[in-house]
Amino acid sequence: MAVRLKLAALGHTMERGRVLEWYAEEGAPVEQGAPLYLVETDKATVDVEAPAGGVLLRIDAEVNREYLVGATLAWIGESGETLPDRADETLAAPAAVSDGQRVTPVARRLAERHRVDADRLEGTGPGGRVTKEDVQRALDAGAAPLLEAVSPGGVTYEATPAHDVVPLEGIRRVTAERLSAHWTGAPQVTEGLDIDMTAMRAFRNANRSAWRAAYGIVPALNDIVLKVAAAALEAHPALNAIFMDSTIRRYREIMLGMAVDVEDGLVVPVLRDAGRLDLGGIARAAADLTARAKARKLAPTDFEGATFTVTNLAALGVDWFTPVLNPPQCAILGVGRMRRTPAVVGNEIAIRDMATFVVTFDHRALDGAPAGRFLARLKRLLESPDPVLFAGADE
User: Fold this and answer.
1) Of 107, 292, 315, 327, which is most buried with the most CB atoms under 10 A?
2) Are strands 331-335 and 308-312 parallel, antiparallel or unpaired?
3) Which of 163, 116, 123 is closest to 143 using CA atoms?
4) pTM more than 0.85
């Protein structure tokens, strides 16, 4: 009996997916467990394996189109099996409407606002009517036919838009939806302070050779920040929490979300159980997550379970910024670039390596004092490096 291949939820937040590529053609044999198609979810691009072996009898899902979770994508079975007709899975089309009624009033208004010729669009509404969604879809894809204009000489031409259309899709769409919803629902407060990184920079330079020998990698300054953040969270667990269903959930394990800038936007894979990792373990795990993020090879499980996020814009030359909470987490740490600047040291002015650290937190879950104490501990750990904190697990 033929197996119906449906789009499965590859993460608890996934609602839809875009099929990017099929690895087999209709009529070709497929093996159970072999990669069958490539799908783009709201967080990653994932190879999906064939759930059964046999022949790929029919592909119902077109490439580069989005489908809701549960939609039928294809059928696998034995050659010659009879399959349900595609039309059996859709409602019968209502009677056709006249040309004068083909564009709904709201679709017409949206089209005119963007100088789009709605009459030239293909309608997906009842009887082939052009709906607001059809117009918006064409706008998002940058494929909307423009209204014709007439020049003073009586020549008809197609007006050229004065802007480029960038579709809000994939990572960018999900980021916009989730952060917009959280921004209106959570009272967000930001606190910050300057931290003198001079001693930490010298400490790192002095230990480069030893760390390379012990870990096989020289931890970057961001790896040190991740390690120190995990240590500070162990002392201040109020920030290692999420706000969900009107409750605060404080976690014993520290699952650090690590913001990574990729071509399509920002992704936040999770550094798992960071509190138990030594500096070398954090450096290796961070390097692996970053490499796979940039290659679009992260799995849905790489994004799950974060209890706190660190986002570092130092590489972009940003001095300071106010990070936005990554829901449902209660706090996020933003790190600016390290800059050489005059600073007061004792009773003297000296040139120091300073960086601004800020924490944004959900005021429903904690107040300013716990966030301030967390920042103060970060400052102490970074300004006075403790060799024991940065020693290997076997040392």
Assistant:
1) 107
2) parallel
3) 116
4) no
* pLDDT of 43: 66
Q: How far, in Å, are 107, 126, 318 from residue 110 at the CA level?
A: 5, 19, 39
Please tell me whether residue 241 adopts helix, strand or coil conformation: strand
Residues 378, 379, 382, 388: is their CA dihedral positive or negative?
negative
Asked if residue 207 lies in contact with residue 390, where contact means CB atoms within 8 angstroms, the answer is: yes
- In angstroms, the CA 226 to CA 272 distance is 12
**Pairwise CA distance, residues 226 & 137, whole Å:** 41
Contacts of 235 (CB under 8 A, 6+ apart): 377
CA 138, CA 291: separation in Å to the nearest integer?
34
Task: With beta carbons less than 8 A apart as the criterion, state whether 117 and 146 touch.
Answer: yes
Report the distance separating Cα 135 and Cα 58, nearest Å.
31
Which tokens hold the place of 37?
Answer: 């198609």
Residues 6+ apart with CB under 8 A from 264: 170, 171, 172
The neighbour count for residue 78, using CB atoms within 10 Å, is: 10
pLDDT tens, 35-71? Answer: 999 888 766 778 888 989 999 999 998 888 888 888 8
Say which residue, 359 or 135, is predicted with more confidence: 359
Q: How far apart are CA 237 and CA 374, in angstroms?
A: 9
User: What residues does 75 pair with on adjacent strands?
Assistant: 4, 58
Give the tokens for residue 143.
Answer: 């494929």
Per the structure block, which two tokens stand in for 385? 């490096």
